[in-house]
Write a structure and sequence with these properties.
Layout lengths: L9 H21 L14 E4 L2 E4 L4 E7 L2 E6 L5 H10 L7 E3 L2 E5 L5 H38 L4 H34 L2
Antiparallel strand pairs: 1-2, 3-4, 4-6, 5-6
Helix pairs in contact: 1-3, 1-4, 3-4
Subcellular location: Cytoplasm
Pfam families: RRF (PF01765)
Family: Belongs to the RRF family.
C-alpha cells in the first residue's frame, strides 16, 4: 500500500476547525454589547421584491457614532419593510425613520441583560468546541483506518499527536475569544 494512503488529511481537519472558529466569530458579532456595530444587523432579513434579503443588500449600513447605527435604504418603497424587519428581529431596538434613512439608537444594556448575553456567548463557544471535537473525532477515525491498513505505530503516534495538538490549539482560541467577548459585554 502506498504511504500517501496512510496519511491523514490534516489540511482538511484544520480547515474544518477554522470554519468552526469563523462561525463562532460570526455568532459573537451578532451579539449586541451596547456598542453600535454594523454586523449586528447581519441576521436581519427584509422581505424585498418577494424574497428574504439581507439588510445590507437593500441599503447602506453605517455606524456614525458609538451608540447609533444608520441604514440608508436605496429604494424608498422598502423603507417600511426594513423598519418592520428590524422591529421584528428581536434586537430590542426601536428604529426612527427620517426619509430613506433609518436610525437605530443603541440603548445601554442593564446588568441582567449583560449577564444573559454572557451566557449566550458561552453557549456559542460550547457549540464551537463541540464542532472542533467532532472534527477531531473524524481525524481519529481516519487514523484507525490507516492503522488497520498498515500504518506503523510510530506514524500513528505522530499523526495522533498532531491532530490532538491542532484540537487543543483551536479549543484554546475558542476560550480566548469567549473571554474577550464576555469582557466586552460586561464593560459598562
Amino acid at each position: 500500500m502506498a504511504d500517501d494512503e496512510l496519511e491523514i488529511d490534516t489540511d482538511d481537519l484544520k480547515r474544518r476547525m477554522d470554519g468552526a472558529m469563523t462561525a463562532l466569530k460570526h455568532e459573537f458579532a451578532s451579539l449586541r454589547t451596547g456598542r453600535a456595530s454594523a454586523s449586528m444587523l447581519d441576521p436581519v432579513m427584509v422581505d424585498a421584491y418577494g424574497s428574504p434579503t439581507p439588510i445590507n443588500q437593500v441599503g447602506t449600513v453605517n455606524v456614525p457614532e458609538s451608540r447609533m447605527v444608520t441604514v440608508n435604504v436605496w429604494d424608498k418603497s422598502l423603507v417600511n419593510k426594513v423598519e418592520k424587519a428590524i422591529m421584528e428581529s428581536g434586537l430590542g431596538i426601536n428604529p426612527q425613520t427620517n426619509g430613506t434613512i433609518i436610525m437605530l439608537p443603541i440603548p445601554e444594556l442593564n446588568e441582567e441583560r449583560r449577564r444573559e448575553l454572557t451566557k449566550v456567548a458561552a453557549q456559542y463557544a460550547e457549540q464551537a468546541r463541540v464542532a472542533i471535537r467532532n472534527v477531531r473525532r473524524d481525524g481519529m477515525e481516519q487514523l484507525k483506518k490507516a492503522k488497520a491498513a498498515g500504518m506503523s505505530e510510530d506514524d500513528h503516534k505522530i499523526w495522533h499527536d498532531e491532530v490532538q495538538e491542532m484540537t487543543d490549539s483551536h479549543i484554546a482560541k475558542v476560550d480566548a475569544a469567549l473571554e474577550n467577548k464576555q469582557q466586552e459585554i460586561m464593560q459598562v
